[in-house]
């Protein structure tokens, strides 16, 4: 096992770009943007903050899976499969677009609704499967505590969410001056995205909306230090090593 600080070529510090989407929604988009189209198997990463009266009216998708994880507020999902559901803080809505789905996502009727939307590519052999939808409330996502914080697992061990791509996806909160260890198996691509506070990883200081993209050519053991009380998202996944053709709402 190598110290990540000795493998800085495996790290990319990344910044999001404000992007207008849907009906008057400005998102902090980590990718796809002109400098960075995707990060196999991940296709899109949007950090959104939606006020009531805006959102994402009916629109189509195909060729990928998506997770909308709520940090505050809530989101109302409705689709052409007959699903009509609302999820609030700490919960997640998941759909597999497969060969095609039409849906809308509209925020809670009051206040701000904040969350992360993550798209995961489907392997070529699964691009035309039937679409599907899952919803998991906050109380059904496993939470583990550690000295100085907690970790909620959105996808991974103990979570009821099932995907067609092998990923781990977590929301971590850590107190000031505490540390947290993350392990990344060889061959995986990983994203660490700061929601609030300030953390240090492999000599890199990260502030809100900043991230590290990590290509783990060898197994990694990461020590994350919180300079202030902090929250961050962590996800890692096995690349498909297939071309990603993302054009608007479609990933072919």
TrEMBL record:
Residues 169-251 form the Pirin C-terminal domain. Keywords: Dioxygenase, Oxidoreductase. InterPro entries: Pirin (IPR012093), Pirin_C_dom (IPR008778), Pirin_N_dom (IPR003829), RmlC-like_jellyroll (IPR014710), RmlC_Cupin_sf (IPR011051). One of its GO terms (molecular function) is dioxygenase activity. Residues 31-120 form the Pirin N-terminal domain. PANTHER family: PIRIN, PIRIN-RELATED. Belongs to the pirin family. This is Pirin-like protein YhhW, possibly qercetin 2,3-dioxygenase activity. It comes from hydrothermal vent metagenome.
